[in-house]
Specification:
Blueprint (H helix, E strand, L loop, with lengths): L1 H4 L20 H15 L4 E6 L5 H13 L4 E6 L6 H11 L9 H17 L3 E6 L7 H10 L10 E7 L2 H7 L4 H5 L3 E5 L4 H14 L5 H4 L2 H11 L3 H18 L6 H10 L15 H31 L14
Parallel strand pairs: 1-4, 1-5, 2-3, 3-4
Helix pairs in contact: 2-3, 4-5, 9-11, 11-12, 11-13, 12-13, 12-14
Bound molecules: adenosine-5'-triphosphate and magnesium ion (MG).
């Protein structure tokens, strides 16, 4: 659809966390390095927090791609924090290929401990990754504390990565969990992007999507407007830019203007309204444009669904970063 119009090979602003689109800001690099180093050096317990949509799941996917290169790492990846303690342990066992059904909590814990110890004796690493960890109940966090006790004097036998929104920090700060908090070996936090990073982020995504001239598609004042509305949150930036491309395509203009960004931000109720729309004073024109945009959005959505189905049929192609600055 709009890809041909803007000479793009793929959609630049998908909101799915695709490692091939990673823009390595300093904070993203540091956070990924902490996760990677924590696992490789068997530090035990690592926590990553960040506001909604700042790239936590993306970093986990990057990490898992890196870890998959080494055959000595097995991991369980839990992305549903709303489980009961038994369900949580069953899920971990199942993900690690261990029998899980019909076992009670202590059987599951014992089995997991045996598995982790035997892997460690063979110099193999085992990782428990929990995304959306801010949803974990205190009970589950207490189970996790027990798992952090699996250790030798030199190293931890199970590497545990907890990743979640800032509420996770609050939970870990609570009195009940002070023992768990003391076991955290590395801790990092993802913040929103600043204006320069937002510019780099948008341009990198456009370049990776094949744009022959990213700065002319999103000129500096347009990027500033994106920054103002998106507040440097990558997921919001994607939503704004994706919809701005659809709107520019609907208008058949090859450069996204600040007014288009304002209009998209208004549609998405993003709050700040700085540039009033030009040339759209007639309600009728607005309505026609809105209807066109809605149709185009729907069409784009259906296309995304279709390509996602395709993706499920073919193995995920992932390229992390050529120069691996975080190792
Ligand atoms: N550094 C980055 N480079 C490229 N894309 C990024 C980066 N950071 C975030 N994104 C993109 O922003 C979107 C949101 O990222 P992601 O889903 O990882 O956020 P999250 O922190 O896990 O959010 P939530 O708290 O809702 O789970 C995704 O499309 C992701 O690819
Ligand atoms: Mg996430």
């Amino acid at each position: 659809m709009y890809k041909a119009f803007f000479n793009l090979k793929r959609n630049p602003f998908e909101i799915t966390p695709d490692p091939s689109f990673l823009f390595p800001t300093r904070r993203h690099n540091e956070a990924l390095a902490a996760l990677y180093y924590g696992v490789k050096r068997r530090k035990g317990f690592v926590v990553l927090t960040g506001e909604v949509g700042t790239g936590k799941t993306l970093l986990l996917r990057c990490l898992l791609q890196l870890l998959k290169r080494n055959n000595d790492v097995a991991y369980a990846y839990v992305f549903n924090g709303k489980l009961s303690p038994v369900e949580f342990l069953q899920y971990i066992a199942g993900d690690l290929g261990l029998p899980a059904s019909g076992k009670n909590k202590s059987e599951l814990l014992l089995q997991l401990a045996r598995y982790v110890i035997s892997r460690s004796q063979k110099q193999l690493t085992t990782v428990l990754v929990v995304d959306e960890a801010h949803h974990l109940s205190i009970d589950i966090l207490e189970e996790i504390r027990l798992l952090t006790n699996l250790e030798t004097p030199e190293e931890k036998l199970l590497q545990i990565l907890l990743v979640g929104q800032p509420e996770l920090d609050d939970k870990l700060d609570s009195v009940e969990l002070r023992q768990l908090k003391q076991r955290i070996a590395l801790r990092s936090h993802l913040a929103s992007l600043d204006l320069n990073e937002t510019r780099g982020y948008i341009e990198r995504r456009l370049q990776l999507a094949g744009s022959p001239n990213a700065p002319s598609l999103f000129p500096p004042e347009t990027i500033e407007t994106v920054y103002r509305h998106g507040k440097g949150i990558p997921r919001l930036i994607n939503t704004i830019c994706e919809n701005a491309l659809i709107a520019a395509y609907a208008k058949q203009i090859r450069s996204v203007t600040p007014e288009i960004i304002d209009s998209v931000a208004t549609d998405f109720r993003l709050g700040v309204q700085t540039h009033p729309m030009e040339g759209t004073t007639a309600t009728e024109t607005m309505n026609v444009q809105k209807a066109a945009r809605t149709l185009l959005e729907l069409y784009a959505h259906l296309q995304r669904e279709h390509s996602r189905d395709e993706e499920l049929r073919t193995p995920l192609r992932v390229r992390v970063i050529e120069h691996e600055p975080y190792i």
